[in-house]
Amino acid sequence: MARLLDTRQRAAFYQLLLLAVVGLAGWYFIANAVDNLLARRIASGFGFLRREAGFEIGESTLLSYSAADSYLKALMVGLLNTFRVALLAIAFSTVIGVAVGLARLSPNWLLAKLASGYVELLRNIPLVVQLFFWYAVIAESLPAPAQALRPLPGVFLSNRGLALPAISTLLPLQIDYPTLSGFNFSGGIALSPEFTALLLGLALYTAAFIGEIVRAGILAVDRGQREAALSQGLSQAQLMRSIIMPQALRLVVPPVTSQYLNCAKNSSLAVAIGYPDLVSIANTTINQTGQAIEGIAIIMLVYLTISLAISAAMNSYNRRIALRGARA
């Protein structure tokens, strides 16, 4: 008993010692940074957020903004732009990834090989290169608005981006269609080349990884359960919906959560193609104010919060799926 107490006391002492070392190291770096800022007469603190930004932002559809607004509002616009592209990319990558994963398991040889080629191609090319490719395709290879492509009625694709119809009122239902006005489209929803390229790159790149995760999760379900279900007269659709997927989801959700986190964090590559996300606007703010530590701290805090929120939501969903899968 005495030996056990000695072991616990030593463990507690070592933990307190480690905590003290980490605290001293943190205090040293913070104090050193403050001294260097004072020596160089560089302002510190977050008071700059209330000052006038003085620069325009190309995309501020979710929040009205002008150059006379504060740096705080400019960063809010960047944050909303980041949310906008990250959430859409997560949704589209999930749909595409599930379809690719199922296609890889298809008995159709051509479909399975095409899905395999998609996975091997996209996940082995750096994402930033793919973003450059999609931006070049949209901004340089597509025609001008006057000769825009029309893949669907009311949908226009040109070097100015993608123009889509929008619902103006629900009751009664009224749809606002984009129309050519001068050198661009007016009305509807306009997606810039930067946003479209970033969304395509993130969704297709992440979908390649999700497709492999879905395929592995389905293959991990015991083959005997498939044979037992088919012997009971279940169709392939019923087998997949009631037997395979509830069990596969327990294996699929944790690694898919990691891909969602990667997708959200990879959205910071928007700065490479000029999309005004949080990182891009924060960089402009840092260049104008010189307060790099505060700007980088804001970026880190925001992405940490986004990652923790996604993890919490997916972990909650995973607990429900695990219980349902266990009952299945």
What class would the helix/strand composition place it in? mainly alpha
- CATH hierarchy, class of the domain at 78-134 and 201-327: Mainly Alpha
Low-confidence stretches: none
Inertia-based shape: flat
User: Largest sheet, order of strands side by side?
Assistant: 1-2-7
* Total number of strands: 7
According to CATH, the homologous superfamily of the domain at 78-134 and 201-327 is: MetI-like
Instruction: Assign the CATH topology of the domain at 78-134 and 201-327.
Output: MetI-like fold
Question: H/E series, N to C?
Answer: HHHHEEEEEEEHHHHH
Round the Cα radius of gyration to an integer and report it.
Answer: 26 Å
**Multimeric state:** single chain
* Residues in β-strands, percent: 5-15%
Termini gap = 46 Å
Characterize the main sheet: 3 strands, antiparallel
Question: Would you identify the CATH architecture of the domain at 78-134 and 201-327?
Answer: Orthogonal Bundle
**Mean pLDDT, as a whole number?**
85
**Number of separate helices:** 9
Helix content: 55-70%
